[in-house]
Amino acid sequence: MALVRELVLALGVLLVLVVAFLEKPLANFATHHYTSADVTQSFALTRTEPAHAPQNQRLSDPAVEMLPWLLHSRDELCAGRFPLWNDYNGCGVPHFANAQSAVLSPFSVPYYVLPLRAALLVTAAAKLLLAALFAWLFLRRIGLAFWPALFGATSFAWCGHNVTLLAYPHSSVVVALPAGLFYAELACARLWERLSGRASALLGLAASLAAGAFAGQPEPFLFCALGVGAWTAFRVFELARVHGGPDRWRRAAACSAWLGGSALAATLVAAVQMIPFLEYSRNSHALLVRNAPQALPIGELWPFLIFPNLLGNPAKLAPGWPDGPRPDFELVHASTTSALVVFLALVSIAWIRRSRAHAFFVAWMLAWVLYAYDVLGFGNALGSLLPSFGIAPMNRSQPLGVFALCASAAFAVERVAELRGRARLVTACVALALAASCAWLAASEAHVRLDRFLARNAAPDDFVRYARDHVTTMLALFAAGLALVLLKPWLRPRAASWTAGAALVGVAFVPWGWMLRNYNPTVPDRTVLPRTDAIDRLRLLVRDERVLIFGADGLPPDTNLEYGLRVPANYDALDVARYEALWRAHFGDGGNGHVAHRSTLAGLSLLGVRFVLTRGAWLPVETTFAGLEPAERQRFRAGAVVPGREITQTFTASENGLQGLRIEVATDARANRCTLWLALEDLERGTLVDLQSLDASMLRADERERCEIVFRFDPVRDSRARRFRFTLSSSDATASQCVLALARRDFAETERIALVERTTPPITEYIPGELRSGAEVVQGGLVLDLSYRRELFRRVTEFEGFTLWKYEEGREPFTFATRALPARDERESLALTLARGFDPRRDVILPASAARSTTTSDCALPDASVAVVEQESTRSRVLVRSSTPGWLVASQPFYPGWKALVNGVERPLLPANHALCAVELPAGANEVELVYAPRSLQRGLALSIVGLLLLALGWIALRRRELRERTH
């Protein structure tokens, strides 16, 4: 009964803390959501409130990745389909195999059965409550008293990692660490003593590990599983060492076998998730970019670990308020709890001889610091020896280090509480002296960092007062917590001792649980994935076709899933490697979000894109400088356009058919009542191409006081490699009524890249362009772009500052090709997609072995009809009628698991156009069915069933043995 009362009391305290942490979303439950999804207000298509500032811009990933994935999984399950494949992003990407989608995570279930606002709260509360509860159960199990164990559990549950990453799958995985440790400890003791309940303990261990594997982040789970494995091995060895006896190693082997079997069964159960994930990893580009631990310089950042809000945080809403230390607020703060916990953990080293369990956590803590902060090169050395540690960066291993810190601090509280007599006074004096020294050193360093920051950055007075008050507050909490720890041995009445224990738990909760309780924002319902008129109009116009949205201001990544829009971009930590390379070649390096800044005609045809959405009137398809936008530090104002001061820019055209020019100007956010004249001259022929006037008062600046000027003229058919001069002038502008031309310092390098590296064959004679402001030669060049192929696009409509275009000669996602171009390797296949003369409407690039015997030189467009009869995420049925043999080319990534059936007979599915797929067809009418049935899933499912059977058989066998032992 005493254990039950303790459990009820611990649950009560933790529930109070959870409610306190979620106070704001609970109070505003009727009108708000507990999510950072108001980041949608930073994007033009989803903006409903122009004045609304996102409450935490740093927490964008949960809103634009995890939440849309969860809602997509829910919709697919409701439709009776398992969410294997996402055909709305990236022309198709694995969904279930992307472990972060967390389709089978226990913490995803609320999203499947509850309204979104309730699911967000239930999931957050469950993560914190379970992490704290299992941490408390484990610490109690290894001998700590009630309040020290609850102090350690609270410090762990509300640490920087779990608060800043509460909306991420990382915090779901974290629960597996204390849960696995608790059940491992319970199983070790019961197996060794042959007590009843060992079957349930082993089942709990397996369930904890399997749930962690399904939770959505394999990297932190790897570290959590390693922590559980290390503790299990340590405890079995300790039991054999302490108990002795001639049969100790036989008993140790038996315990290890049962424990290992439980872990193996958990691994098998999780195979249905992990094998598809490993397959996706092998076919992604993630392994190429994540090959070393991401160590942070602890010497530079340690003050921020003690004073987390020293430089503010992204959740603050005030003009000019800094968003925290670099490189990233979460990365810096996800590896610590409070200053009190860190201090107690270090002080606890004095008592490690009292408990080998305590010594284990101290060693664990020190080893993690060596790895995570790459002390003396330890992290990189370990990564070179064990590749998996190199792939998994430091910012996935924090749960290990933080748990070791909290456990060590809990041991310190316990040891101090046990002190008697003279030892109490000596310990108090030494601890106070050490604490005062550490507090003085930390405060001094914090003020130095703050002064250094203020010397480089302008900040409001409110921020300065807040930062200095923050140092005082954290020191006060540190002092209060230390006083409670040191006073506890002197408190004789049980009520006073328990009051001090409860106050200590409160001190553990406040630094992250209370002070940063609003780091995860509570936002109005109307800002959560809003359905705007712009979105509805776009969806109505493009229907089920793919649409390419240029620029980062259009649509939040992956929220297209919720809006039912198909986009060729994808926001994923993995990405199919070949598709990633194809995207970068044709649409530029748009980062993780695949932001398109430019496009080739071939790229649009390759991906089956016919609709293009641009911000403004400029279409960056087959243009010279698109995708080579200057960084902010490269921009400058070349001068005001006033009478007697013309702005001229010479340049070389890279293609024939030059027919448009775009430049950027600054307007100082005012209406400029003057007339601008735009002129283009052909320098080699000495002729004027065109001359136009523009009313400058019609220009509309963006939030950065910039606006674009689009200068269109009749195509210059033979413009390739010819020199031109653009002139911007005004005859009636004044110093107060004028525009300012924007230039870039890196123009020469940018022009060289655009003309030489992007042109096939390259322009052999490169003459850099020259910028003049009046008679003065300016080092740099205008921020401009040159257009060549606009006549191939029809302007569909304009809305909300966007222009929707349709590529009239674009192809559908399924086309029939009659000419095969052989490629010897991946490098050549990618180069061929950029080659002149390659037309995806007619041609297909195939491996040399598949294309050699069937290559045709027919250059005409195929005489064939292609009709999509049925299309789902994992299945497409297409009817093809052609008079000649050829290939059905599908604009979807070539990925393991897809197979092709031609007239009911399986035929080889070929890698085509570097990243896509094709199937060879004979002449005539053919029905082609593409089906996604990955063997990785089938194998994983088979192994999972085996794992479940092993768990069931093991549980039955142990239960029977327990019943026999009980009857005897």
Itemize the secondary structure elements and their pairings.
Elements: H1 2-21, H2 23-27, E1 32-34, H3 61-78, E2 85-86, E3 93-94, H4 109-113, H5 116-141, H6 146-157, H7 160-164, H8 169-174, H9 176-193, H10 198-214, H11 218-243, H12 248-269, H13 271-282, H14 286-289, H15 298-306, H16 329-333, H17 339-347, H18 356-372, H19 378-385, H20 387-391, H21 398-417, H22 422-456, H23 461-487, H24 494-514, E4 522-524, H25 533-542, E5 546-549, H26 560-563, H27 577-587, H28 601-606, E6 609-615, E7 635-640, E8 647-652, E9 658-666, E10 675-682, E11 687-695, E12 706-716, E13 723-729, E14 740-744, H29 747-757, E15 771-773, E16 776-778, E17 781-782, E18 784-787, E19 793-799, E20 802-807, E21 814-817, E22 819-823, H30 826-833, E23 843-847, H31 848-851, E24 864-872, E25 875-882, E26 886-890, E27 898-902, E28 905-907, E29 910-912, E30 916-921, E31 924-932, H32 935-967
Parallel strand pairs: 5-6, 22-23
Antiparallel strand pairs: 1-4, 2-3, 6-20, 7-14, 8-13, 8-15, 9-12, 9-14, 9-18, 10-11, 10-13, 14-17, 15-16, 19-20, 21-26, 24-25, 25-31, 26-30, 27-28, 27-31, 29-30
Helix pairs in contact: 1-5, 5-6, 5-9, 6-21, 6-24, 9-10, 9-11, 9-12, 10-11, 10-12, 10-32, 11-12, 12-32, 13-32, 17-21, 18-21, 22-23, 23-24
